[in-house]
Write a structure and sequence with these properties.
- The protein is mainly beta.
- About 5% of the residues lie in helices and about 40% in strands.
- The chain is built from 1 helix and 11 strands; from the N terminus they run βββαββββββββ.
- A 5-stranded mixed sheet has the order 9-10-4-3-11.
- A hairpin with a 5-residue loop joins strand 7 (about 70-75) and strand 8 (about 80-85).
- This is GFA family protein.
- It comes from Vibrio casei.
């Protein structure tokens, strides 16, 4: 498994490289992750001791720290895409899986905070699947 990972935001203004291995890949269903992802959960990879290098656009990265919590989110100020965050308190780089341009090297290791799972996402296995936008 490669320990070099590359990613970017939707508008392409911000690009980064992460050196390190991912130990965990959590699908977090907490209400804070629902709010900041705009979906039923956030898909975050954790690289303990990882080294994050901004290749371009670092001045466009904004980091929001939710008051009285460890919940932090970094994002591109131009397009709003989620970007990696340095979690100094746990010596870790948190990487939203969707911002990686290189392949995600591990499968999710756990669903967390499932007691807060969005009700509309409890049983999606019976929902029809399409390869593109249905007509």
């Amino acid at each position: 498994m490669s320990n070099q990972h590359f990613g970017s935001c939707l508008c392409g203004n911000v690009k980064f490289e992460l050196s390190g291995n991912f130990q965990s890949f959590f699908l977090c269903h907490c209400t804070r992750c629902q709010k900041d992802s705009g979906s039923s959960y956030a898909a975050n990879l954790f690289a303990k001791g990882g080294l994050l290098t901004w290749l371009q656009g670092e001045t466009s990265v904004i980091t929001y720290q939710h008051p009285n919590s460890l919940h932090t989110k970094s994002f591109c100020q131009n397009c709003g895409s989620a970007l990696p965050t340095l979690a100094d308190s746990i010596n870790c780089v948190l990487v939203p899986a969707g911002c990686l341009d290189s392949a995600v090297p591990i499968f999710p290791t756990a669903n967390i905070f499932v007691a807060h799972r969005a009700r509309w996402c409890e049983n999606v296995s019976c929902v029809p699947n399409f390869d593109k936008l249905p007509k």
